[in-house]
Amino acid sequence: MLNIGTIVMGAADVRRAADFWCRALDYVPRGGVVEDAWTMLVPANGSGAGLALGFSETPAQEHPRVHLDLYADDAAEQAAEVRRLVALGAERVDWDRYPDDPDFVVLADTEGNRFCVIDMSHTPPPS
């Protein structure tokens, strides 16, 4: 059975993106090295999917087809993590597709790659 080993994202500044994601996720560069064109980040605790960053001049998409979802246990943790990520260099995205009662906040990393911070305790209203 296959499993996800690495998620690959493009970045115009691989070093800056690597610095952000290492601090955001407690990841470290595999082999301790960050290259300008390609780098692989792995969880510091050794468990979980890797995140690779490859040089790309393609602009980030406003509505990307693929993005990361980062999970927070509850609304308080979600708010704290959003504040922490913004302090690390992420930006809040003025997302035009939020539902009425969202369980997620859309952010962009230092390269404009969008990702969400999800409140896993959120119960959506009945439909």
Automatic annotation (TrEMBL):
<protein>
    <recommendedName>
        <fullName>Glyoxalase-like domain-containing protein</fullName>
    </recommendedName>
</protein>
<dbReference type="InterPro" id="IPR041581">
    <property type="entry name" value="Glyoxalase_6"/>
</dbReference>
<dbReference type="InterPro" id="IPR029068">
    <property type="entry name" value="Glyas_Bleomycin-R_OHBP_Dase"/>
</dbReference>
<feature type="domain" description="Glyoxalase-like">
    <location>
        <begin position="7"/>
        <end position="118"/>
    </location>
</feature>
<dbReference type="Pfam" id="PF18029">
    <property type="entry name" value="Glyoxalase_6"/>
</dbReference>
